[in-house]
Amino acid sequence: MREKHILLVEDDETLQNLIKKLLVDNEYMVSIAKNIDEAEKLIKFFIFDLIILDVMLPDTSGLDFFKDVIKDRINTPVIFLSALSDVEDRVTGLELGANDYMGKPFDSRELLLKIKKNLSKSQALNIVKFSKYSLFDLKEEKLFYKNNRIKLSSNEIKILKLLINNSNQFLTRDLLNNELGLDYLSRSGDMQISRLRQKLKNECELNDIIRSIHGKGYKIFI
Fold first, then answer.
1. Does the N-terminal or the C-terminal CB of the chain have fewer CB atoms within 10 Å?
2. How far is CA 150 from CA 16, 64, 104, 132, in A?
3. Per-residue pLDDT tens for 183-202?
4. What CATH number should be reported for the domain whose range is 127-220?
């Protein structure tokens, strides 16, 4: 099982280093952004399992970033970091749809527990039904049609899971190639998605469940 990849958006370098060490020591992969501009670039290139987002950032509010960029594009748990006195910010973040918050200063054990809890929640839905007769078991990585298992390659499974777990955002070619370990300019990922779409159509009677949007990427409609 791959390491869970966490994005930490925090401009305080001392706190950055402390949180990164805590997460790495607990076997999480960590990417760091010190402002929203850096965070937006990372989000376009990686699919994160969880985001830790500071409310007060140098270029814009973490609340605005969540509302304008993350909320409607990424199906990823978000934990806000905010000063204990900023009650309004915490309430606003939760009202917008954030999963959790941590008050500064915080106990490292509490942060780890919140991360574990929110990652578990995001993985709770294992069975995804595409139609009355078609379903995909995320945990077992198996596709079924009328109770018969449909054979998928390892990359087809990975692509299907990427699309399902991130159904609120477009899967760009850059992101797809990065997740599949392909060269930046490779068209192999596009061809593999094309074969997967054909297989879903021919063997599961699923037409246009995966669609390509010009200039944006691929999206699954479930």
1. N
2. 45, 43, 49, 16
3. 877 888 899 999 999 999 99
4. 1.10.10.10
